[in-house]
Every structure is written in C-alpha cells, then in structure tokens.
Task: inverse folding
C-alpha cells in the first residue's frame, strides 16, 4: 500500500458524506456558466459522478468556449451540494495557472484560493492552483503541525487543464496518488494508441462526457470562423535546387555552400529553410502576402493583431529584421516574443492591449496556447506543426469574439496564413504521436535493461560480455537503490523498486520485464551529476549496441554518430581531443562504424563521451537572398466538421438541438402531448438515423424518449407560463407564492421537466420559506403539483 488517508482526511470524508446532496437536479449559476453547453457540461459531469458512479469525466470543448467558466460553475455546484471541500487545479504552464486562478477569484470571490507557483507560504486554501512540476515537489515537502499536508485524501476534486498534453508524461503519478474524482479539460482529444485520452478517462473513443465542437460554437455565434490562406513557396516546398537558380543566384549559392574540398551540394532540402538557412526573399514574400491580404483595422490603415508562429529564435529574429527593413515607417509594429526575451510577459501584456503596440507578435512556442486576445485577426503558420492537439490550440488563438473591432463592425472571421502545408498534412493524416517523456538518465537506464536482457543469450557468454552485463546490472541496481522510498511517486511503484534494487533479480530476465520497467522504474530514475551531452552520447551508443544485439539496422544512429565525431574533430588544439586522434580518424575515414561490434562501440563511447562537451554550441546560420516564388496560394473555407466528436451522445443531442422544428420535437418544446406517430418519429430519429436502440440504452438507460428530448430543448417560456397561468394571474396569491411559482416556471423552462420534487426544498424555492409555510392553503399547492405532473406527463407518450 503506497498511501493511506490521514485522520483529518477521514474526518473530512465522513463530514462530506453526511452533507452530500443529490446532483440529480443541480442548479447551475447562470452568472458563472450561462451558456446552454456550459450548463450541459456541468450537468453531464454531475450525472457521471452521481448516477453513473464514475470518478472520471472528460470535457472536450473548443478553445475559447469557456472551459474555465464551466469548471468554475461545476465547482460552485459541487461545493453547494456538499460534494467537495478542497479542489486542485493543475495545468502545465504558469500562465495557464495564473489565468485560471484569476477566473476563480472573479467568479467565486468567497472561495479561498492559492497559486503554489507564486504563493510559496500559502498552502491552506480550499482551491489550490499549481503546475504539475510544482505539485510533484510539494506533495512530499509541504507539512504542517499534523504532518504531510497534501496527503492522498486531501483533495476532493482534481481538474486537469489541457488533458491531452499533460496526463501522459512523468506527472501521471499525481493522478494515481490523489484519491479524488478527476475532471479533464481539452479542446483536442487524440485517439492514439500510446496516449488515448478517452481510455484514461474510461470512455469510448469519440465519446467524451460532454463535447462542444468549434463548428457548433461558430454556428451558435459564440466563436469566430476562419479562412485559411494556404500558400506554397517554392523553397519551402521543394528546397533550393542549384540547377534551377539564376546565374546570379548560382554564384551566391557556390560562395555560400562550397565545402573545404570545393564541392557544393546539388540541393538544400526544404527542412533547412528557416532552420539553418534563412533566405531573405522567402521571408520577404511571406510578409508581403500577410501585409497585403491580412485583415486590417482603422479603415485599412493598420494590420489587425497578428501572431506569426516562427520555427525558432533565429528565424523569429530574422523575420523581425526583414520586417523592419521592408516597413521602416512601422517602427514597433512587430516584436519577437519567446523564452529568450527577459521581459516576455510585459510584451505579451502589451500585445494583449488593443491600444498598444506591437500589432505583430513573432512567437516561438510562447503564444501557441494560453493567450486570450480577442483582437487577433491574423495567424501565420511559418513552421510545421506535427501535433494535432497543438495545431488546433494554435488556431484557437483567433476564435474569440470581439465586438466593434473592424471600424465599428464585430469580428466575424479571421485569417490563417499557412506557408508550411499544415492544413494539408492534417487533411491527409492525424499527425504523429509524441512518445512519453522521461528524463535522459531514465532512458539510458531502460536501454541498459534491454541490453542486459539480450546479453543473457548463449552467444554472449564470453568473459567480455559477462563482465559488460555485470557492469550494467551493478549500475542499474545502484540507480534504483538511490530512489527515496518515502517519495509519493516512488511509493506507488514500490514493488518494482524493491525488486530491482536487488542484483539477484537481474539474473534471469524475460522480455515482458523490459516493458514493465519502462513504465514502472525508468521514469523514476533521478538525473545524476554528469554532462548532459555525454549522457546523450551514451544513449546514442547504447541504442546502436541494442540494434546490433537485436539484429536491426542502425543507419540513422550511425549518421548521428558520424556527425558528432566530425564536430569533435573540427575543434582543434585541445589535448584531450588530440589524444584520441587515431580513434577519431578510424571512425571518420574507415568502415569502423559499418563493421564494428559491441566491443568497438563501447570503446568509442568510453573514449569520446568526454569530448562531446567541446562541440560548439549552436548551428552555423546561413543567410541567403535567392529569388523565391509563390507557386500557389489558395483561400479555403474552414473544414470544422472534421473534429472527432461523433459518439452517440454527442450526435443525439446535436441532432435534437438542430431540428427543433420537427413536429415531435416542437410538440415537446411547446408542452403538447405526444401521440403514437410522434413516438415512432422519435424512435426513428434516435434509434435509426442517429444510432441504435442499444446505443441509446447504453447512454440513457430506460429514460423515455420524450423526457430525453425535453431535457435538451427545454420548455418554451410561453407554454410554461400558460401551464401555470391560473396561478400567475390569480390576484389572491401573495408575492411569496407568485415568486415560488415563477421559480418553478424558470426551472422547467431550462430543464424541460421536474421529476424530483425534492428540489423544491432547496434554494431558490425556499428563499421565502418552505412549501408548507408559503402555502397555508395546501389545496393551492396540490393544484400546482398537478400542473407540474401534467407537464411531465406530456413528455411521456
């Protein structure tokens, strides 16, 4: 057992269980989360926790649709119903943590909050905001007079922001440590084998707890649609081909790329552009397209707020330099914003202010997510994006509404200039998965374990290989013994930590053990005091050796090794390098890398690893000015219906919302009783057109179809008032009784039915007293009750 509840955890748990009320008819504070989908999301999570008895929920909501407001509304509901006391909000960046805390403070001012990234001595608030890394460090280090503060039962709800990015890496132990319901937030779920968001939340693919797509948000008028300007620049598409250059450019090419032997490459690959080759005309043509065609404000005199997503810092600086050269009168219009700028946050604040410059932010990673600037009118993809999640996060920077932005007209669209084929890439495939991240030393430990497994083979039972395996095992066991058994993450893997602290347990390894330790041990291995470049070189060589043991090719690693040794060889007059001159020559000028065995590569690793530190930092950047050309530029409407939220629940609810004029649905909304034909029509819609009877039953059980539909569309206000008109128009009723009836009307308008009358024993119905106190004449109350039952019955044929 890795953790147990503390005494105060148990006391809090028992108290909550006594206080806890049903979430069946939860009232959402519309001042916090007033949009229909926000209320729908909150009720879906409450239903998951209360009726379905699940402890995990995933909200998939378009960037800009108010995910934070939604979870604030959820927390408000759960606090009022006695389900939670302590809340943890986690995000992967300080800016997101700060932004979320600000929203909670504004919307729930009475809730005590703290940001662990800033308030280092304030740990006792009921709502704690933190990055994953900060919380990892705080779990074991923060204590009070009763001992560890952040025990496994301390929190009653955990909110995981941008769940698609953060839940898969080494911080996953946070979620297995804390014993609390988990709500994940994301705009872009990814159905990938190695990190399936839905799987983690125990949901079927494409079926989040609640989903609200960008397409729906645009249709509803809550977010803004875009046009993509997809442009093919010749060099970015085909590379720089020597034979296709003008005579003048060929001369520049020869002078720039000739090597020490007088040879020149036939072509510079497209991947080199904006990486180590900065071609002025390529950037100039891109900027001209943006400045000419980008959306403008101030009657066309000023380009609207624009983000250019650059490939790297050097690229960003070069874009700025060329912009200032091309547009000398627009001083201060463009600024680079990345993590190399000491005052980056103040630049972000200035960019976020519509009255201040810069108008153009040239960003390297910093503005991809988390920034909320409604005034953004243009986005520029000047780099390739391989992650679908990141791609849609970046698009989300432009989707916010902004009234009166363009000469008194509301913002109704934004442009995306794509110079690197990102839209085409994501049309053709879903993007590439990102592997789980562990520290470099953990990766080396895992490689050694795999080699120790391979070296058990009879073919390697020689003195050299037996000794090599023993060296690996001794080092691995020592690394595991160094782990702190009291650390919360280590305790969750204690079985395997104890097992692989003992050298004897490495004596007979099986293949499945290599898979187990990759998950259970490798992520725990601590960084040690060694040059990271040398450790990275170790990983390269061990990868080659493992390929040899597995009988696989290692051409990419061979190329990497050759490049590193060449870089070492280029550094002169260092005695340590000179001492290894013969070995370096053999690596570079013979077939040693091609024919070498494990003993050869171990020798290379031992002799060269200490020299890697001398390789100069940074790449040589070539600045060129070859004439580039725009081969094609297409303006395309967005294709928002491609998002992967097509589970039955989503499709059923979306259909009902979009087809409220169909006869059966319109009857339900206007409180008209259904007949057999209406029921048949609903069955055809929900059991044939949208899905199957089994799909409906799996999602909604035996809930009557009419009741389900009414819950989506609500009840028309006029129809509701008509049903209660005898009471609302009764001049004999006093103000308290009229207020009570109006509250019933508002509830049914929102929820469609009122099945559980126990809700009438809660606020706002009881604001003026109980039912008995308000209606001394119980016959009036009985008549009101019959009106409620009549409305409910009209939803059930």
Result:
């Amino acid at each position: 057992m890795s953790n147990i509840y503390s005494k105060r955890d148990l006391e809090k748990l028992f108290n909550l269980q006594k206080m806890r009320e049903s979430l069946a008819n939860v009232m959402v504070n519309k001042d916090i989360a007033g949009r229909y989908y926000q209320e729908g999301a909150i009720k879906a999570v409450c239903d998951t926790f209360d009726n379905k008895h699940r402890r995990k929920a995933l909200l998939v909501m378009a960037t800009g649709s108010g995910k934070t407001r939604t979870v604030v509304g959820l927390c408000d509901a759960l606090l009022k119903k006695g389900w939670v006391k302590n809340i943890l909000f986690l995000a992967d960046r300080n800016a997101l943590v700060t932004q979320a805390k600000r929203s909670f403070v504004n919307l729930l001012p009475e809730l005590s909050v703290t940001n662990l990234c800033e308030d280092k001595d304030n740990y006792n608030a009921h709502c704690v905001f933190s990055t994953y890394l900060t919380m990892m460090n705080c779990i074991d280090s923060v204590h009070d007079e009763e001992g560890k503060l952040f025990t496994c039962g301390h929190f009653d709800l955990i909110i995981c922001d941008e769940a698609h990015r953060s839940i898969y890496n080494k911080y996953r132990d946070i979620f297995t440590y804390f014993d609390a319901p988990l709500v994940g937030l994301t705009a872009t779920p990814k159905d990938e084998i190695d990190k399936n968001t839905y799987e983690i939340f125990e949901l079927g693919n494409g079926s989040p707890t609640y989903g609200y797509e960008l397409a729906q948000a645009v249709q509803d008028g809550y977010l803004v649609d875009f046009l993509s300007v997809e442009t093919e620049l010749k060099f970015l598409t085909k590379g720089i081909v020597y034979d296709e250059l003008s005579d003048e450019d060929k001369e520049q090419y020869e002078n720039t790329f000739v090597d020490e032997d007088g040879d020149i490459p036939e072509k510079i690959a497209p991947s080199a552009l904006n990486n180590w080759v900065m071609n002025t005309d390529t950037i100039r043509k891109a900027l001209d397209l943006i400045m000419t065609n980008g959306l403008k404000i101030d009657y066309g005199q000023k380009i609207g707020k624009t983000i250019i997503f650059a490939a790297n810092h050097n690229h960003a600086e070069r874009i700025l330099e060329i912009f200032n050269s091309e547009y000398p009168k627009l001083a201060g219009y463009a600024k680079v914003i990345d993590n190399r700028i000491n005052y980056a946050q103040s630049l972000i604040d200035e960019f976020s202010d519509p009255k201040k410059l810069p108008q153009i932010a040239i960003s390297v990673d910093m503005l991809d997510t988390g920034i909320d600037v409604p005034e953004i009118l243009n986005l520029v993809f000047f780099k390739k994006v391989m992650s679908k999640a990141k791609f849609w996060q970046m698009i989300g920077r432009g989707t916010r509404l902004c009234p009166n932005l363009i000469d008194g007209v509301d913002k109704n669209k934004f442009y995306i200039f794509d110079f690197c084929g990102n839209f085409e890439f994501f049309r053709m495939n879903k993007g590439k998965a990102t592997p789980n991240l562990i520290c470099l030393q953990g990766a080396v430990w895992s490689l050694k374990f795999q080699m120790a497994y391979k070296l058990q083979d009879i073919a390697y039972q020689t003195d050299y290989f037996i000794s090599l395996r023993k060296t690996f095992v001794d080092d691995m066991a020592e690394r595991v013994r160094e782990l702190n058994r009291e650390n919360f993450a280590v305790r969750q893997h204690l079985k395997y930590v104890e097992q692989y602290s003992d050298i004897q347990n490495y004596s007979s390894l099986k293949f499945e053990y290599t898979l187990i330790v990759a998950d259970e041990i490798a992520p725990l291995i601590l960084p040690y005091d060694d040059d990271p470049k040398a450790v990275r070189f170790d990983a390269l060589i061990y990868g080659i050796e493992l390929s040899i043991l597995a009988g696989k090719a290692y051409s990419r690693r061979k190329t990497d090794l050759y490049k590193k040794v060449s870089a070492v060889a280029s550094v002169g007059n260092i005695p340590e390098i000179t001492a290894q001159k013969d070995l370096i020559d053999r690596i570079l000028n013979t077939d040693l890398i091609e024919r070498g065995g494990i003993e050869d590569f171990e020798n290379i690793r031992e002799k060269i690893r200490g020299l890697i530190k001398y390789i100069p930092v940074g790449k040589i950047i070539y600045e060129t000015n070859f004439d580039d050309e725009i081969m094609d530029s297409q303006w395309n409407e967005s294709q928002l219906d491609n998002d992967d939220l097509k589970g039955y629940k989503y499709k059923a609810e979306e259909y009902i919302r979009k087809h409220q004029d169909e006869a059966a649905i319109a009857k339900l909304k206007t409180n008209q009783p259904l007949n057999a034909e209406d029921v048949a029509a609903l069955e055809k819609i929900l059991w044939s057109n949208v899905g199957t009877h089994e799909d409906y039953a799996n999602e909604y059980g035996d809930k009557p179809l009419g009741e389900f539909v009414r819950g989506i569309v609500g009840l028309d206000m006029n129809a509701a008032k008509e049903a209660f008109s005898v009471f609302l128009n009764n001049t004999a009723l006093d103000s308290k009784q009229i207020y009570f009836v109006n509250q019933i009307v508002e509830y049914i308008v929102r929820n469609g039915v009122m099945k559980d009358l126990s809700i009438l024993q809660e606020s706002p119905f009881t604001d003026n007293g109980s039912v008995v106190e308000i209606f001394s004449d119980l016959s009036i109350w009985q008549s009101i009750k019959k009106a409620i039952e009549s409305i409910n019955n009209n939803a059930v044929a």
Remarks:
- DSSP finds 37 helices and 22 strands in the chain.
- The CA atoms of residues 340 and 495 lie 43 Å apart.
- The radius of gyration is 32 Å.
- Confidence is low (pLDDT under 50) at residues 190-195, 430-436.
